[in-house]
């Protein structure tokens, strides 16, 4: 049996592929060297494990759309070029070519299978323009509810497949590794009375599709489930990770309320950013203004807020009125979810600007995988935001995230069901780094797992607010050496305390209380490695900005891999 952890688009795609569903994959795979896979049309039973309700995931909350070159004036090569440019020199070209070519194939297949994309009066698929794209290629559904529609439509396909079994309210406690090979998972499952129950599941393959870790930060667009669970479990098992220093902060989340995401597509339709004096400042920052890459806009927003004492910047949609005289009606139709939320806060954004600020949105780094989702641990695969495929580089191109989950989730499921037990991962090479004291070539930097035995746990167990405040202060939008060094020291102590608190508690108490403790340990685990990676990358590149290194460092040629040595479980 194959176990898939996570039910966003990456997990759903992996489950469908492993179960042999023919509605996805009919157009085949891209031919790019080791991007191919041997084997026949194998299939297996799949257990799809969900921490919360079946459809609760980052995918469900995604707004903007899916970037794909399916229109006559576009092609995968143009899409790949935009992706490479946004990634600031750290994208792997083969991985990107696979993404854009197979992405177009997978999207066409999903539309044919019944994905309810938005269409014009003539029945044609509608598309939008987003930042750093040279073409209007972003397919959307439900206006600004693309992720929700995609999640519901694809999860319905999963429910129809008799080989896929769904287990809700089950939390990944840890991976089971025997003789160097993954052999199962340890779960915490919610019992009928709400109590936590331990359960061990044997599996020949495990696919992690657990999303990101936006809950590291107090300001995030991510749902409550985004606590880095799969990435942390992989780190404890000794898997290699890479690019964790690159955390994308979305430029425009509501500055009040629940920091609700105001989609990139709003700026794509013509909205502009203003400072407290009503000045449009993005034209002073980049020639693409509000349609500059997300990292550029996020930094500009953050610095503008600093200059005006922390007051949020304002997003003004009034320029859209030139093409849409009845602006209120247009906003209700094109952005129904955002429109309803802004109005619930008392704003009529058709008549007044709304306050926005940067918020943690997407992690470019993750478990280092090859082009079929294989990790450095045999039998362990990863896809979606928890994986580092080489596609996103130092900064994700807008609306490439759902596409990556769709493409590489399918590939991971295909490999998991076709691979033999002696299959090995074939990662793309990392260019050598000339950083003093760090490894060159392909060897990862090995970090010790903090524990009380080291005598470095001087603090009590941190609560969620403590974690969020530490990360925002020292590992946020703008970073420097002293802040990152302080974060590493603090997080070592905090993680040691969290590791000491976990043994013996995982089978007692309520499910909610139990996973809250485990989630905090996971956040501290991934936050610690992120802080180390950010401290070691002595440059500013993409989503990683060091105020003490204003430019790109040419000696850091590519990514640095990391792994944790020793576990607390």
Characterize the structure shown.
By secondary structure, this protein is α/β, with parallel strands linked by helices. The chain has helices at 9-18, 58-61, 76-86, 93-113, 146-160, 229-237, 264-268, 294-307, 327-334, 336-344, 401-418, 464-474, 481-501, 511-536; strands at 2-5, 46-49, 66-67, 127-128, 138-139, 164-167, 170-178, 181-190, 196-202, 205-208, 241-242, 247-254, 272-274, 313-316, 354-363, 366-368, 380-382, 387-388, 445-448, 561-565. The strands form five sheets. It has a five-stranded parallel β-sheet, covered by helices on one side. The chain has a five-stranded mixed β-sheet with strand order 18-16-11-20-19.
A few lines on this structure:
The protein is built from 14 helices and 20 strands. The chain has 569 residues and is an alpha/beta fold.
Radius of gyration equals: 22 Å
Shape: globular
The count of strands amounts to: 20
For the termini, the CA-CA separation is 24 Å
The number of distinct helices, counting runs of at least 4 residues, comes to 14
* Low-confidence parts: none
Structural class: alpha/beta
User: Helical amount among residues, as a percent range?
Assistant: 25-40%
Q: What profile does the largest beta sheet have?
A: 5 strands, parallel
- The whole-number mean of residue pLDDT values reads 92
Q: For the largest beta sheet, what order do the strands appear in spatially?
A: 6-2-1-10-17
What is the strand content? 15-25%
Topology of this structure?
Blueprint: E1 2-5, H1 9-18, E2 46-49, H2 58-61, E3 66-67, H3 76-86, H4 93-113, E4 127-128, E5 138-139, H5 146-160, E6 164-167, E7 170-178, E8 181-190, E9 196-202, E10 205-208, H6 229-237, E11 241-242, E12 247-254, H7 264-268, E13 272-274, H8 294-307, E14 313-316, H9 327-334, H10 336-344, E15 354-363, E16 366-368, E17 380-382, E18 387-388, H11 401-418, E19 445-448, H12 464-474, H13 481-501, H14 511-536, E20 561-565
Parallel strand pairs: 1-2, 1-10, 2-6, 10-17, 16-18, 19-20
Antiparallel strand pairs: 3-5, 4-5, 7-8, 8-9, 11-16, 11-20, 12-15, 13-14, 14-15
């Amino acid at each position: 049996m194959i176990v898939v952890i996570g039910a966003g688009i990456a997990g759903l795609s992996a489950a469908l592929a492993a179960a042999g569903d023919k509605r996805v994959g009919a157009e085949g795979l891209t031919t790019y060297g080791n991007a191919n896979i041997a084997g026949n049309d194998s299939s297996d039973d799949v257990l799809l494990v969900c921490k919360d309700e079946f459809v609760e995931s980052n995918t469900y909350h995604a707004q903007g759309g899916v970037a794909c070159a399916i229109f006559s004036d576009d092609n995968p090569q143009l899409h790949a070029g935009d992706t490479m440019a946004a990634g600031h020199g750290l994208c792997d070209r083969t991985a990107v070519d696979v993404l854009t070519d197979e992405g177009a194939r997978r999207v066409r297949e999903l539309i044919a299978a019944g994905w309810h994309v938005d269409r014009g009066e003539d029945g044609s698929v509608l598309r939008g323009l987003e930042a750093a794209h040279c073409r209007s290629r972003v397919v959307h559904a439900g206006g600004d509810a693309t992720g929700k529609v995609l999640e519901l439509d694809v999860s319905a396909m999963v429910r129809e497949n008799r080989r896929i079994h769904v287990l809700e309210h089950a939390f990944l406690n840890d991976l089971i590794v025997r003789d160097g090979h993954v052999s199962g998972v340890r779960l915490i499952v919610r019992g009928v009375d709400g109590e936590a129950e331990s359960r061990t599941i044997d599996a020949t393959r495990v696919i992690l599709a657990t999303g990101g870790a936006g809950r590291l930060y107090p300001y995030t667009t991510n749902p409550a489930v985004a606590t880095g669970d799969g990435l942390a479990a992989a780190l404890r098992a000794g898997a290699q990770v890479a690019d964790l220093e690159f955390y994308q902060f979305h430029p425009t989340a509501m500055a009040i309320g629940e920091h609700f995401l105001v989609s990139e597509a709003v700026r794509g339709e013509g909205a502009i950013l203003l400072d407290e004096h009503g000045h449009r400042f993005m034209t002073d920052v980049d020639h693409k203004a509000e349609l500059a890459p997300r990292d550029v806009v996020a930094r500009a927003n953050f610095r503008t807020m600093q200059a005006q004492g922390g007051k949020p910047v304002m997003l003004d949609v009034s320029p859209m009125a030139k093409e849409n005289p009845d602006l209120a009606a247009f906003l209700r139709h094109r952005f129904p979810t955002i429109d309803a939320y802004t109005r619930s806060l008392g704003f009529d954004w058709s008549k007044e600007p709304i306050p926005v600020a940067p918020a943690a949105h997407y992690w470019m780094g993750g478990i280092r995988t090859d082009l079929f989702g294989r990790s450095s641990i045999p039998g362990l695969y990863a896809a979606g935001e928890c994986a580092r495929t080489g596609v996103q580089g130092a900064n994700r191109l807008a609306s490439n995230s759902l596409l990556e989950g769709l493409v590489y989730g399918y590939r991971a499921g295909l490999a998991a069901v076709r691979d033999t037990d002696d299959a090995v991962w074939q990662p793309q090479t990392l260019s050598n780094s000339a950083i003093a004291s760090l490894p060159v070539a392909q060897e990862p930097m090995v970090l010790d797992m903090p524990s009380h035995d080291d005598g470095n746990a001087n603090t009590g167990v941190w609560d969620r607010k403590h974690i969020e405040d530490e990360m925002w202060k020292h590992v946020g939008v703008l970073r420097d050496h002293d802040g990152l060094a302080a974060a590493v020291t603090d997080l070592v102590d905090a993680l040691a305390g969290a590791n000491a608190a976990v043994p013996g508690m995982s089978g007692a108490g309520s499910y909610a209380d139990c996973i809250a403790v485990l989630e905090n340990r996971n956040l501290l685990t991934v936050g610690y490695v992120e802080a180390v990676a950010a401290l070691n990358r002595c440059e500013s590149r993409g989503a990683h900005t060091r105020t003490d290194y204003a430019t790109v460092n040419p000696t850091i040629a590519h990514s640095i891999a990391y792994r944790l040595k020793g576990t607390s479980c």
